């Protein structure tokens, strides 16, 4: 006979605790759920894998290539890393919105009633996001290849660049997940993501060499805006196949974001859910 005894809250919590292996399996299952949700919304693929990577690559290349670099082939090594960063970092701002949508619809409340790890819905949602970053990166480099871009460091540098930007964007997604859980509505969270990321992307060296900017703006781009460091790392990888000091600076900076924002996001998620 099934056990129908109603346990006190503290005993139910102990009964529902799960191990690390179960937590990983639960998170994987919910990551698969997030991927299925993406597959049921084709407009997501149009926006993130066609409009941003393809349209922005073509737009910047044909409009600004001649003016900035003299011709399109010379501009491609500048613009491809920039579009890669923009597409991945724009995607990471939506991570919190999807999570907040589950909270507002009561989906997370149903998850709480199930014998699964409490962190699984949060971890599963954010674990699925790197798939989008990788797909967007492949689209960017495919478009660049069609236009004639051939990275000097070869395919290994392309793969490493995509994975590097994917990791940085995934770390940033925890920041936007925290912001989303702290705002009152999904639209507010989305607006904050746009207001924060778009100025940082365009006020960087993503599409224009910093040397062409006024002195005060050049200082902001090279010494204050952290996204410029990511661009420098990607360009060094693709052009020379080297890992410089900027790589380690970005890596430790993003790891510091994880140390700070994973606990904060978990606390905010538990309060909301």
Q: How would you sum up this structure in a few lines?
A:
With 273 residues, the chain is mostly helical. It is 80% helix and 0% strand.
Write the layout of secondary structure elements.
Elements: H1 9-16, H2 20-39, H3 42-69, H4 72-92, H5 95-105, H6 107-112, H7 120-127, H8 129-147, H9 155-182, H10 186-202, H11 215-224, H12 226-240, H13 245-272
Helix pairs in contact: 2-7, 3-4, 3-8, 4-8, 4-9, 4-10, 4-12, 5-7, 5-9, 5-10, 8-9, 9-10, 9-12, 9-13, 11-12, 12-13
Task: Describe the 3D structure.
This protein has one domain (18-272). Helices cover 80% and strands 0% of the residues. The chain contains 13 helices and no strands. Helix 4 packs antiparallel against helix 10. It is elongated.
Stretches where pLDDT falls below 50 for ≥5 residues? 1-16
Query: What share of the residues does DSSP label as strand, in percent?
Result: under 5%
SS content category: mainly alpha
Number of beta strands: 0
Q: DSSP helix count?
A: 13
Radius of gyration: 21 Å
What is the CA-CA span between the terminal residues? Answer: 32 Å
H/E element sequence: HHHHHHHHHHHHH
**Range of helix content:** over 70%
Shape: elongated
| Number of domain modules | 1
Tell me, rounded to a whole number, the average pLDDT: 81
The biggest beta sheet reads: none
Offer a few descriptive terms.
13 helices; mainly alpha; 273 residues
């Amino acid at each position: 006979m099934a056990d129908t005894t109603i346990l006190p809250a503290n005993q139910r919590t102990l009964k529902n605790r799960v191990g690390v292996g179960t937590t990983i399996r639960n998170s994987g299952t919910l990551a698969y759920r997030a991927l299925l949700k993406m597959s049921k919304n084709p407009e997501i693929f149009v926006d993130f894998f066609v409009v941003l990577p393809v349209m922005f690559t073509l737009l910047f290349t044909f409009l600004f290539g001649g003016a900035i670099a003299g011709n399109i082939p010379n501009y491609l090594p500048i613009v491809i890393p920039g579009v890669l960063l923009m597409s991945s970092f724009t995607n990471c701002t939506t991570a919190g919105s999807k999570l907040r949508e589950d909270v507002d619809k009561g989906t997370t409340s149903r998850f709480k009633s199930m014998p699964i790890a409490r962190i699984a819905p949060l971890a599963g949602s954010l674990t699925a996001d790197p798939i989008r970053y990788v797909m967007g990166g492949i689209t960017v480099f495919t478009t660049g290849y069609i236009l004639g871009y051939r990275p000097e460091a070869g395919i290994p540098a392309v793969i490493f660049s995509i994975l590097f930007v994917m990791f940085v964007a995934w770390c940033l997604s925890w920041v936007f997940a925290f912001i989303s859980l702290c705002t009152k509505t999904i639209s507010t969270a989305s607006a904050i993501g746009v207001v924060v990321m778009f100025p940082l992307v365009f006020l960087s060296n993503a599409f224009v060499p910093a040397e062409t900017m006024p002195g005060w703006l050049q200082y902001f781009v090279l010494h204050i805006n952290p996204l410029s460091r990511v661009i420098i790392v990607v360009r060094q990888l693709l052009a020379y196949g080297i890992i410089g000091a900027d790589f380690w600076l970005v890596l430790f900076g993003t790891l510091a974001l994880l140390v700070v924002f994973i606990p904060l996001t978990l606390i905010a998620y538990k309060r909301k859910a």
